[in-house]
Design goal:
two-stranded antiparallel ribbon, 434 Repressor (Amino-terminal Domain), 79 residues, mainly alpha, 4 helices
């Protein structure tokens, strides 16, 4: 799957799809990354944050297109 990521909502959908492909819960992903489950949930929901707001503002201003491509999900180190 490939997606053009134009905003935090689209990024969240892509991240959720990738997590689901690895059959991971938000809690499992959060634990692996050393972050809170709430943060994972907020990212997947496309909740605006200072980082994402600025990132997409810069991308638009500079005419940069962000493309996300999900691999097949067969990573050997996925838990």
């Amino acid at each position: 799957m490939k997606a053009t990521v134009r905003d935090a909502s689209t990024l969240g959908l892509v991240l959720r799809e990738a997590r689901v492909r690895y059959q991971m819960t938000q809690d499992q992903l959060a634990e692996r990354l050393g972050i809170s489950q709430r943060y994972v949930s907020e990212m997947e929901a496309g909740k605006p944050g200072i980082f994402t707001d600025r990132l997409f503002l810069m991308l638009r201003e500079l005419d940069v297109v962000l493309i996300a491509e999900l691999k097949d999900g067969s990573r050997s180190d996925a838990r």
